Amino acid sequence: MKKTKPDIHLVITAALKKELPLDWLKAHSIPVHTLASLDSGAMKKYHENQSGILVIITGAGLKASEEAACWIRDEVTPLFVVNIGTCGLIDRRRPLARWVIPDYVWNEKGDQCEIDTRFPFQAPGRARRIHSLLSVQKATLGELPASWKKYDAVDMECFAQARVFRKTGISFHCLKFSTDYSDRNGVTDFNTGLETFREEVKNLFDRLISPRPANQLEITVIIPVSNREQTIQRAIDSVLTQSHAPKEIIVVDDCSTDRTRDILKAYGDSITVAALRVNSGPSKARNEGISRAQTEWIAFLDSDDCWKKNKLEKQVNFLKRFPFYQILQSEEIWIRNMKRVNPRKHHAKPEGWIWEASLQRCPPQKIWGF
Q1: I want to staple 210 with a disulfide (CB 3.0 to 4.6 A). Which of 95, 238, 323, 338 is the partner?
Q2: Sign of the dihedral through C-alpha 259, 298, 269, 255
Q3: Are 264 and 273 a contacting pair, CB within 8 Å?
């Protein structure tokens, strides 16, 4: 029987236990495991309703970091891995106690990996880009080797993970926090900066965990319409009967000339109707609806489509498990000439960094019409 992998979408790696606010993470139901506990079967207790975020303490050093990356690659296969942790700065002109995002990471042999500087969640506002991070076998304090001085910062784990994940479809990212200058005061500065770093990690995870209970997640539904007297009522009714009710329904009338306007009026205060003065197409209509929306989340429905009763409920529950996502796609049933048809393989919904892939399926000449 084929082994089912746990449904983990985001893995965050850190080298040391003392770098993390363990009690705080536990209180917020974020699972944290060492590689040893994972090798002992800790994930066997994982169930599908748990958070889709996993924190792994890899242990210090490049070898331990590589072993953890291989375990993630083979046993979990998430969409994203983010390596966080402390680093030493080599350029003393840069301030300490700041998040840094490297463009490239090297090892001491001169091997290089480019780092994806996008993040699957909102990066800290004070984070600064640096060009280069050097991952070393052994920390050196005081007079640094001459070969290190051409880099911006130094750590002991990032390169090993970057090298493993660049050969996979797993998106790898790095976010470091500068605690010292790798000089004779490095150990003292590192220990002093740990408390600040742990507080920064709490702030970081605040961006990942759901800001409110699922039943309080508010949604605006936007329906653009133009001359759809035969289908608009079905579309609106499918929203009004959702098991997770939206906060508001905005129907944008793009200069309908049939009975559509009369149908919309019959709904009274159940919906908000916005009328465009000039027929402008669905993109303009959707943007008009967005400008009027009062909620964090927006859901689009075409006027000739309808939703299953629990559509929004399922998406809200998904966001409860994976709160770092900023956009969701849902599957659909295609009906053509009263018969169900199956989508082709190229219509499959991509995951992860989907923007460019999505544009390939929606060139401008194909997006007009409701």
Answers
A1: 323
A2: negative
A3: yes
* The model scores a pTM over 0.90: no
Distances (CA, A) of 368 to 75, 202, 280, 282: 43, 45, 10, 7
Closest C-alpha to 105, from 165, 48, 22, 180: 165
Give me the residue spans of the domains in the chain.
Answer: 10-206, 214-366
Architecture of domain 214-366: Alpha-Beta Complex (3.90)
Under 8 Å between Cβ of 155 and 186: no
CA angle 11, 65, 14 (to 5 degrees): 50
From first to last of its 370 residues, what are the pLDDT tens digits of the chain? 455 778 899 999 999 999 999 999 999 888 999 999 999 988 877 666 567 899 999 999 999 999 999 999 999 989 999 999 999 999 888 999 999 999 999 999 999 999 999 998 888 888 999 999 999 999 887 788 999 999 999 999 999 999 999 989 899 999 999 999 988 888 899 999 999 999 999 999 987 776 556 667 899 999 999 999 999 999 999 999 999 999 999 999 999 999 999 999 999 999 999 999 999 999 999 999 999 999 999 999 999 999 999 999 999 988 888 888 888 888 888 888 888 888 777 777 778 887 777 777 665 543 333 3
Query: How far is Cα 352 from Cα 313, in angstroms, rounded to an integer?
Result: 22
Query: What tokens were used for 13?
Result: 């790696």
Q: Which residues contact 337 (CB under 8 A, 6 or more apart)?
A: none
The CATH code that applies to domain 10-206 is 3.40.50.1580
